[in-house]
Amino acid sequence: MVFLFPMLIFLIILYGTLVWTIYVSFSDWKTITPNYQLVGFKWYQFIVAQPRFWVDVQNNLKWLILGVFPTVILAIFLAYLLELSPFPVVESYVRTLILYPVAMSFIVTGTIWSWMYEPNRGVFNTLLREIGINSQLRFTTDPQNATYWLILIFIWQYLGFAVIITQSSFRTSELQEMIEAATVDGAGKLRILFSIVIPNIRSGLMVLVSLLLISTLKVFDIVYIVTFGGPGIQTDVLALNMWITTFQQRLFSAGAGLGVIIFLMAFILIIPYTVYALRKWFE
Amino acid sequence: MKSKNRTVQLIVFLTLIILSLAYLLPIYVMVTTSLKTIEEINRGSYLSLSGNPQFSNYREVLYGSAQFRSHMLPRLINSCIISFSVTFLSALIGGLGGYYLSRTRTTFTRVLFVLVGIALYLPYQAVIIPLVIFMAKTKLALTYWGLIGAYLILNVPLASVLMGTFFLSIPRELEEAAEVDGASKIQTFFRVIMPISLPAYASVAIIVFTQVWNEFFLALSLSSPKTQTVQVVMAEAKGTTIVLYNLQMAAALIAVAIPLIFFLLLGRYFIRGILAGALKG
Predict the structure, then answer these.
(1) Is A181 in CB contact (< 8 Å) with chain B?
(2) Greatest CA span in chain B, whole angstroms?
(3) Is A204 near chain B, with CB under 8 Å?
(4) CB distance from A249 to chain B under 8 Å?
(5) Which pLDDT tens digit goes with each residue over B89-126?
(6) Distance (Å) from the C-alpha of residue B93 to the closest C-alpha of chain A?
(7) What CATH class is the domain B73-277?
(8) Which of B40, B126, B196, B271 fits A259 for a cystine, CB–CB 3.0-4.6 Å?
(9) pLDDT at A22 over 60
């Protein structure tokens, strides 16, 4: 059938490459020349024996938690505020203002923020000095906190995306009626937010959280361009480790193993979204 | 639920100021810096405008110079060729596939839908090694087809789901009427469904275009010198040109110009595309 066939070809290739990656991860391919001799979990053992892997896991967890939840909370707050705001101009202004970074690449955003973060002559510290604050912030060169400053760039870039999705969850007639009724009963704005709005946009929030979790799990570009995992390997993440292992150290089997690990994590994170989508699609 | 409450208005006002600062500062600094001389930047007053706008910075970035060796112009053309081809082909194939997914209700479709759903968010790290090996073996990596093919594999599922979400909202009566008139399924799709779905195609196109234009991981791993994209050359420039911030910002501006113009002109479609991805079509 004309409709099914072209899509099916691409799907088959895609899952074919996935299976191929899994196969490579169980073989003994450690130089530029392919070697498909199966050696079981050898390279997985190699991966988890490296301290770097555990730094990555910690950093990826930081990304998952701090990249997602502050973004969602801020998005709920902003979306609710836009609903309350009596001026329509405010809404269209804010939408464009916070959504434009969605059209930019992490590479460009990272280039701009690298300069803003630069500790000596960067934009932030220079501006702070101009208003009389002698800032000691080292931003992404501070080994302790570098990852947090990277996550801030992500939040900045994804906030508009999150607000748009949250706002559309507000716009159901049932929810609007409930809010009307509660307002007539004299409930306060905050009370309405916590006892009516948030419980009733659960499915929208679930989708948003899933999408953000996947994006933070896959994070590569920001880290590559701003710190390349440094200082040392303090900001390294699984995706960057995978790239370095594969294309710089040419340990293809270990790289494939890391790819499989990232895939499995993504697979677990995407289950709620897929189940929800399936139910919604075939209802 | 509009509010005339004073406190609410005050909070709205404060939020506006904070957001404006946070979101205008980066783009303001980028634009003004891209027009400055290196001496002006060294003076450190980043908020001031350039006294003598240096449009030659853009020429240096586009055509290359001693300070900026990676010419942007050929890479800009590469990015255009790759992104537009992938956008067109994924919209076409995704439209067909999405139509199939939205109009059949068999167990096979359900399985297919789950496979497409997972493919939508598949980390590129899980498929990159075979792609690189395959493209190198077939020498496709040296041509545009290497990257176009790789992006198609990853964007056709996305386009299918997005298009399908839109097709679900089209009433079946339209197709039934066409079929009564004796049109085949394919004729119905191209003559009835496609023309009324042009806004949906626009949404999908702008989402896929932005995604492909901005993609870095695949482009970095798969592009040869001849097919390098804007993102890869940006990353290279940041690594090699030390503190030439004016040229870096000019390059950044050139790299975002096309998707940003599309966003400003077609913002409505962009938002609809995002919402379709969040299953709110």
Answers:
(1) no
(2) 75
(3) yes
(4) no
(5) 999 999 999 999 999 989 999 999 999 999 988 999 99
(6) 6
(7) mainly alpha
(8) B126
(9) yes
